[in-house]
Amino acid sequence: MFALLVGSIYFRLPDTQDGAHDRAGVLFFLTMNTAFSNLGSLAIFLFDRSIYVREHRNGMYRPSSYYIGKIVQDIPFGIIVTFCFSAIAYFMVGLQSTMEKFSIFFAISVLVMLNSYGICMFISNMAKNYQVANVIAPLILVLYLIPSGFLINLNSIPIIWRWIKYISFFRYGFEALVVNEFVGLHFECHANSTIPQFCTGELYIENVLGFEADSLNTNIALIASSAAIYMILGYIMLRVFRRGEGK
Questions:
Q1: Confidence (pTM)
Q2: N or C: which end of the chain has fewer CB within 10 A?
């Protein structure tokens, strides 16, 4: 239903200057939705953790067995949900309708989802209870939105906050989606226009958003590495913070 709502709002974006801005906007919105997709599962994660603590205390399985089993159980469902959402919103909005572009879009969306999942696992294994986890997780995700390049120019961010852009999986995911979509696009330009125009997608993302047109592979590698790091940190938190509870 939510994908249909997004698709109906941004239905069939035109290849105009205004359409270029709207494309960046819908990609930001889609990235944000995927990034926040696992917040609703925090309570489930904490409930499962309480079961793990009890069963681990009884010597039923090792922490690694529980953690791997949890991931194997949850990730396929998350991928299916991400595919359904992506397919509906992508083609209703009218993004580049080639199999290569959509496949890359879907792969990036899955990586964003995995980062969100990893962060929620990490926080749920570290936090004492749901109330604490429900405060920390949204705060971290909102902080990751700031250096995306869409809400505020990266050079305009106060220097004390600029470090966030280096660890923000949201920034890498959004930039990857933008580069994937805009490279190869051509927008309508009018010779008598008095405002700056960008006739190609490459010019738009480089001049308006400050992204590099050849950064797709780099961003994909960074967001994949980020997902792996959060998964590992989640396991470490399970071993370290829950060790006393499992005795």
A1: 0.90
A2: N
